[in-house]
Amino acid sequence: MPSKRKFLKQAQKVAFDYEHRQKLKHNIGKYEIAVEKGLLRYKDFEKARDIASAIKTDVVNNLDKYLDEFARNFEKNGGELIIAPDANSALAAVERIVKQVDARLIVKSKSMTTEEIGLNEFLESFGVEVVETDLGEFIVQQAGEKPYHIVTPAMHKSKQDVARLYHEKFGLPEDADVHQLTSFTRGYLREKFVKADIGITGANFLIANIGAIAVTENEGNALMSVSFPKVHIAIVGIEKLLPSYKDLSLFWQILANRGTGQSVTVYNSLILGPKKNVEDNGPERMIVILIDNGRTELLAQKEQKAALKCIRCGACLNACPVYRTIGGHTYNSVYSGPIGSVLMPFFGGFKEYGYLTFACTLCRKCEEVCPVRIPLPDLILSNRRDYVEKYKLSSSGERVAMKAFEYSLTKPKFYEINMSKVKNAFIRLIQNWFWSKYRDFPQFKTPFRKQFKHKKSN
């Protein structure tokens, strides 16, 4: 399996890249301090989690009802709705709109759903300029990279890295400071906003009872992506629903706290459709493309469907020791970390992404920090079971090894035999294959059962 081999090779490379690890440690460390301060604002954060979890569980269990309610209300507001069963149908819908308005320039806000369907590459393939307007997304776009993290796309870059990039791309001084970098980006993007034919966003939430999308951000660029162009397209996963706008008082805060450590993000917008006759600004058309792309298959799973509660805060990535060791790009998938290990096999196939379910130590830290109480370690184990039993994707060598392991565990007499020399030779072989120069393994001496009996007799 090329994807698995690539993952293991990249994981080993990044795990021992000291400079990369230091950048990641520094940036996640700042996040952790902010989150701890943010928690002090809550009288009872665990109760907030309980309520948020209950609301999202209700949504998952009644997804069809809330989708119908959202669709009716959004169309009443003058919006256009398109249902996309998969990535190709979503891309085809965007292409039709682009050709209808003869669009040449599109501005985009940060959206993992558009990354999921490969929107930028698709539009660029037939000559449309696509500009990411979120600063982190803009940086990785200029670097020719994919987002490193679902909340902070350029988490892996230092300010010196960004200065070098801007020097190469735009001719800024190689030692440009943060003010120079952001000022240049602001001026560059504002020209794009004014000239853009279409603005594309995702949505943090779909509000069923008023037919609106909710967008939360810190820079205001998503709002400008909506306000200036005549056409606004929102591409959103079908699971992003909330029953009522009243739920936002909880979800905007809990998303901000777990996402960035803020009490609330700087810009929070409710968009109820295209501009009305009495309004001077805003798009003349608003189209929401609701995308499935494996979500209904996930919904059909008794256990793993709980992953659809995810609000994309990124907390599980920041807490995960595997993510913190190997970094976001190593996963080679749109969604990384614990949530990516559950989602990607359904969004992209178990054959292509099933190996990600083994990128987990089962430390359960992700479950501790999840604001909607998704039992991620249990879902990862369920994926592992399906990977082996349902899809038969484990290698013959793995199956033989596990059968031998199972057999030995059921035969206690094996543990009475002192096979220290054989064990040590076997471990040296394994070490040369897998651990090489990075780890030492202790020598086997007296069998544990013999040690235990000796200690007990004394």
Number of strands: 10
Strand count, sense and closure of the main sheet?
Answer: 6 strands, parallel
Q: Please name the CATH architecture of the domain at 44-295.
A: 3-Layer(aba) Sandwich
User: What class, by secondary structure content?
Assistant: alpha/beta
**Given this structure, which CATH class of the domain at 44-295 is correct?**
Alpha Beta
Shape: globular
The CATH topology assignment of the domain at 44-295 is Rossmann fold
Number of helices: 22
Radius of gyration: 25 Å
CATH superfamily of the domain at 44-295: NagB/RpiA/CoA transferase-like
For the largest sheet, list the strands in their spatial order.
1-10-7-4-2-3
Low-confidence stretches: none
The helix fraction, in percent, is 40-55%
Average pLDDT works out at: 93
**What percent strand?**
5-15%
Distance between the termini: 53 Å
How is this structure best summarized?
This protein is α/β, with parallel strands linked by helices and about 450 residues long. About 55% of the residues lie in helices and about 10% in strands. Among the domains are: about 45-295, Rossmann fold; about 410-455, no CATH class.
Describe what this molecule looks like in 3D:
By secondary structure, this protein is an alpha/beta fold. It contains 22 helices and 10 strands. Among the domains are: 252 residues, NagB/RpiA/CoA transferase-like (Rossmann fold, 3-Layer(aba) Sandwich); 46 residues, no CATH class. Helix 2 packs antiparallel against helix 12 and helix 16 packs parallel to helix 19.
